[in-house]
Amino acid sequence: MNFPAIAAIYRFEMARFFRTLTQSFISPVISTSLYFVVFGAAIGSRIQEVEGVSYGTFIVPGLIMLSVITQSISNGSFGIYFPKFIGTIYELLSAPINFLEIVIGYVGAAATKALFIGVVILATANFFVDITIAHPLAMVMFLVLTTITFSLMGFILGIWAQNFEQLQLVPLLIVTPLIFLGGSFYSISMLPQIWQTISMFNPVVYLISGFRWAFFGTADVPIAVSMFAIFAFLIACLGFIGWIFKTGWRIRK
Amino acid sequence: MVNILKVEDVRKAFPSGFEALKGVSLDIDEGEIIALLGPNGAGKTTLISTICGITSATSGKISIGGFDTATEYRKARNLVGLVPQEITLEPFETVMNTVRFSRGLFGKKRNDAYIEKILKQLSLWDKKDSRTMELSGGMRRRVLIAKALSHEPRVLFLDEPTAGVDVELRKEMWEVVAELKRDGVTIILTTHYIEEAEEIADRVAVISKGEILLIEQKDDLMARMGQKRLKVELQSAIETIPSDLAEYALALDSKGETLVYTYDTKADRTGITKLLADIAAAGLALKDIQTVESTLEDIFVDLVHEDAA
Ligand SMILES: Nc1ncnc2c1ncn2[C@@H]1O[C@H](COP(=O)(O)OP(=O)(O)OP(=O)(O)O)[C@@H](O)[C@H]1O
Ligand SMILES: [Mg+2]
């Protein structure tokens, strides 16, 4: 393992993040605050309680997941797409590093950034509502696994994409709807039966449900299923990355 | 001497089916400077990219420092620095950071004193904190060179390093190359400035349409293929070359004042003495005489033309 190379990639990517730290910090704070104003205050006052917690508190895990997933995908995809786009990827290809090291460097940085945003949102939410975390360890585990999994997914997207449209369209057309329809702002049990069944095909449902369980101890789907789901995604992404590694798909001409 | 770089029958076909390298073989000794010459599209960049791992060869074998670039790529690539033809840099990064990044990628410990040395050598030290987007084209190319040197490579590929670099800096760059050579670094460079190859290369390789046409010591090449021209300036202009002088295949310049005789420096007899006597016999008075040696450029143009014919 070429650890200095992994560290160099990680540091270089994080430097990009720190250059725009204020922006990285302010935007989640503002958007979270807006969500609380709109959903918490305006709508929440009409919804009593969901599964025993106030609506404002209820949406916190979904809100974090929403941002963490989108951030992970965009960081992960942009990190590798950018060198491909501007041509600096020649350096990665001619350096004594392998694909796994490249993945660890870029995905590690992307996941770190997303994690940072997740923590900022949690801290911001704490100003608006009372939050108690029933299973802190599980909460951290879900958060970390989610950032890594979706950063990997982003990385795959970044390798696959051949232009900026593709890079933006996939998150916009597939991921965002899945997150919104995955129970970020409602409990699946609030839906009519038919939609509950359909929702079970949405992978994000399991993540949000599991994450919510870590906060409140209650969930739409059994926690074991959620755990299984997140590991299954992670393994699927790793498997796909391994396949790219073997075949050199879309990396070397 | 050791072959620091060995390329054996390397072929590269692109997915379109186009074969950019048609069985290239090269043996390069440690510490020499090789100039790779060839017209646009000859396959120079493709050859370098294949050696450096940016594209993979369709067939053939490449080793650097004795390490196979496919099976022992880490050891092989550790030895190599690459300056690509296209200038590509992270626009928002500072010069210092981007050079440090390159060193890190090659698994080397951070060494700012060494980076300072190369940035100074390349006249970039005062730009170390500038973002690369704020630099001129020539400066950016030098940043690429600094990046390639950042990990102390033993073999350096320079793909048109002096394109877009002004005359003075070009000279400075040649000095950097000479200094690297003194340190024992092997240098493979491509260029369209033939005088550059003439100035700094030990050996010259000519590539055209994916094939190496020749690879030879520059001095031998010049001596072997070199022709000299004798320019005979006349007192007064003439309209046509006197028929007595037909055997010399002379050329007359447009003003009719200079006769040009081309001869082979290696031939037993150059025929100059007899030519001068015959010119006098033909009743022409001489004003001045001058000899001109053919340059690498002439040789190169001839070669590529022959190949195209
Ligand atoms: N990705 C590619 N797909 C298909 N053909 C390619 C590709 N890259 C290069 N070629 C072709 O391979 C040939 C050699 O290109 P190469 O870039 O190696 O030339 P070169 O000798 O470096 O030329 P120049 O002096 O212009 O830099 C050209 O005919 C080019 O069109
Ligand atoms: Mg080229």
Strand segment count of chain A:
2
> Roughly how much helix do the residues of chain B carry, as a percent range?
25-40%
Give the name of the CATH architecture of the largest domain in chain B.
3-Layer(aba) Sandwich
Question: How confident is the prediction overall: mean pLDDT of chain B?
Answer: 91
User: Structurally, how many domains make up the residues of chain B?
Assistant: 2
- Helix count from the secondary structure assignment of chain B: 10
Instruction: Spell the H/E element sequence of chain B.
Output: EEEHEEHEHHHEHEHEEHEEEHEH
Main beta-sheet strand count, sense and barrel state of chain A: 2 strands, antiparallel
Output mean pLDDT of chain A: 91
Low-confidence stretches of chain B: none
**Which structural class best describes the helix and strand composition of chain B?**
alpha/beta
**Poorly predicted spans of chain A:** none
CATH class of the largest domain in chain B: Alpha Beta
The total count of strands of chain B amounts to 14
- The amount of beta strand of chain B, in percent, is 25-35%
Termini Cα gap of chain B: 37 Å
Gap between N and C termini of chain A, in Å? 25 Å
User: Strand order within the widest sheet of chain A?
Assistant: 1-2
Report Rg of chain B.
24 Å
* CATH superfamily label of the largest domain in chain B: P-loop containing nucleotide triphosphate hydrolases
